[in-house]
Amino acid sequence: MTISPKLNAFLKQSNTYIARMKARGVLPTPETARAGMAQLTGFVSNIPEIAHIEARTIITHNLKIPVKIYSPSPNVPLPVLMYYHGGGHLCGNTDQYDPITRKLALSANVVVVSVDYRLAPENPYPAGIDDCFHATLNVWDVLNNVKHQRRQFIAGDSAGGAIAASIIMRNQERPDLAIEKQVLIYPGLDYTLSSASYQHCGNGYLLETDKIRFYFDNYFQHDEDRLKASPLFGRFSPDMPQTLVITAGFDPLKDEGRAYYTKVKEQGVYASHYELPGMIHAFMNLEDLVKKEVRELYQKIADFLKSSTSSK
């Protein structure tokens, strides 16, 4: 397995910059991490038109949770997909993910509700999970301007995938949500960093193991049990939703994604795993460099969400 040559120039530039910062003893900060995340948005330049976009606020449990609602056909009742963006629990927002959420809505023919959850370190664990959980539970209150079905899916990439899986883990203990399907895009599911892929892919492929530790140390600020917080080591049950896990061949998070898929499947729940072998973490945010692979990603998600595969 080799890295896609489409990524060589980008990785060379990225690795040169990382090496220069390390040589100078420059440590990452939330501000520099957020600036880096904002730069990635420049690699998604194709922004399609969509029929309906609306900013709303879900107010519940003393929380005010901003969301953006996207519908390709606001007069047609469509299923609802909650989307939780990536960014290591420190970075990202619904504006930066606007092109991605548009494309998800258009390709899968769903109403997408993108959640602008609170970020660490200002709002550490579990604030982001709480926001996304309560937004998912109460989203129906803000969908009065688009027709929709009472069917709910959830999805997220990277830290957003971790949030999605954490919501499912929480819901196994107290099933408040009726989620049919979940899509986890190169998700972070193991806060203990115990998988072998952290050693095999943890340097030279954009997301490095040291940077992941930095993210997690800002996210967990009160000596939480990181094993207990990890969806990979949480409760799995036959009541879990149908699951699609997408991984990248040169991503330090790939082993935990594979392992999560296996654990879901062992419960008798329908699960699918799709790996893009030459890709790196966050390749969805690098669409201009890997257009074919990102098209495949959207198609896989659309096929999964549209399918009527039995959950058993």
Structural features, described:
The protein is α/β, with parallel strands linked by helices and 312 residues long. The protein has one domain: Alpha/Beta hydrolase fold, catalytic domain (Rossmann fold, 3-Layer(aba) Sandwich). The chain has 10 helices and 8 strands. An 8-stranded mixed sheet has the order 1-2-4-3-5-6-7-8, with helices on both faces. The model has no long low-confidence stretch (mean pLDDT 96).
Remind me, CATH topology? Answer: Rossmann fold
Major sheet: 8 strands, mixed
Number of domains: 1
pLDDT averaged over residues: 96
Counting helices, strands and paired strands, the structural category is: alpha/beta
N→C terminal distance: 33 Å
- Strand fraction equals 15-25%
Assembly state (oligomeric): single chain
What is the topology, as strand order, of the major beta sheet?
1-2-4-3-5-6-7-8
Query: Topology as H/E string?
Result: HHEEEHEHEHEHHHEHEH
Indicate the overall shape. globular
Report the CATH C-level class: Alpha Beta
Supply the key terms.
312 residues; 8 strands; globular
Summarize this, please?
Helices cover 36% and strands 21% of the residues. The chain has 10 helices and 8 strands.
Secondary structure topology:
Elements: H1 8-23, H2 30-40, E1 52-60, E2 63-71, E3 78-84, H3 98-108, E4 111-115, H4 127-138, E5 148-157, H5 159-173, E6 179-185, H6 197-200, H7 209-219, H8 226-229, E7 242-250, H9 254-266, E8 271-280, H10 291-306
